[in-house]
TrEMBL record:
Domain of life assignment: Eukaryota
Sorted UniProt keywords: Cytoplasm, Nucleus, Proteasome
GO biological process: proteasome-mediated ubiquitin-dependent protein catabolic process; proteolysis involved in protein catabolic process
Lineage: Eukaryota, Viridiplantae, Streptophyta, Klebsormidiophyceae, Klebsormidiales
Similarity remark: Belongs to the peptidase T1B family.
Protein name stated in the entry: Proteasome subunit beta
């Protein structure tokens, strides 16, 4: 058993037309035993930048605190928010510097560039980046997430359509993975607003 599957998780980030969506399940478990149904895996760095962390729950919380701390230092020094690509480089270097005793978490980064175009990227626990122009997934439900996203995704979706697609992909995928599920949470971020919605899924 991989330590990355110990707590279970499912995270998707998806591009739309001048917007993006990032979603995750809410289950926290120890293998097949469910401990909580409101666990947070998606974190706001600033208004137009979010990070999702799949993997070991304790490392998820530690990394979130470190990323927020580093972004605040950057903002104090530069007097501006970090660009998504800059933040991806920061996350990658922070993971790689711990490569001999790594954090067991795989990040998904989603943000809006200054011109309003969406940016999404994922990486492994050593910080090797993978960019995409449509969607990225992470977690124990990755295989079924890929299949659902491949069949449902369309380019240049409006925010409401994007919400529908990412929600259906998440809910249908976690039903096929016993380590993730118990509903989900979706953030849709556009130039002018952030919409956060909670999904109800199968409770078993």
């Amino acid at each position: 058993m991989s330590i990355l599957t110990y707590n279970g998780s499912a995270i998707i980030a998806m591009m739309g037309k001048n917007c993006f969506a990032i979603a995750s399940d809410r289950r926290l478990g120890i293998q097949q035993q469910t401990l909580a149904t409101d666990f947070q895996r998606i974190f706001k760095i600033h208004d137009k930048l979010y990070i999702g962390l799949s993997g070991l729950a304790s490392d998820v919380q530690t990394l979130h605190e470190r990323f927020v701390f580093r972004h605040k230092l950057y903002k104090l020094r530069e007097e501006r928010d970090m660009k998504p690509s800059t933040f991806a480089n920061l996350v990658s270097s922070m993971l790689y510097e711990k490569r001999f005793g790594p954090y067991f978490a795989e990040p998904v980064i989603a943000g809006l560039n200054s011109d309003g175009s969406p940016f999404i990227c994922t990486m492994d626990l050593l910080g090797a980046k993978q960019f995409s122009s449509d969607f990225v997934v992470s977690g124990t439900a990755s295989e079924s997430l890929y299949g659902a996203c491949e069949s449902m995704y369309r380019p240049d979706l409006e925010p409401e359509d994007l919400f529908e697609v990412i929600s259906q992909a998440l809910l249908s995928s976690v039903d096929r993975d016993c380590l993730s599920g118990w509903g989900g949470i979706v953030h849709i971020v556009s130039e002018n607003e952030v919409i956060t919605r909670t999904l109800k899924g199968r409770m078993d």
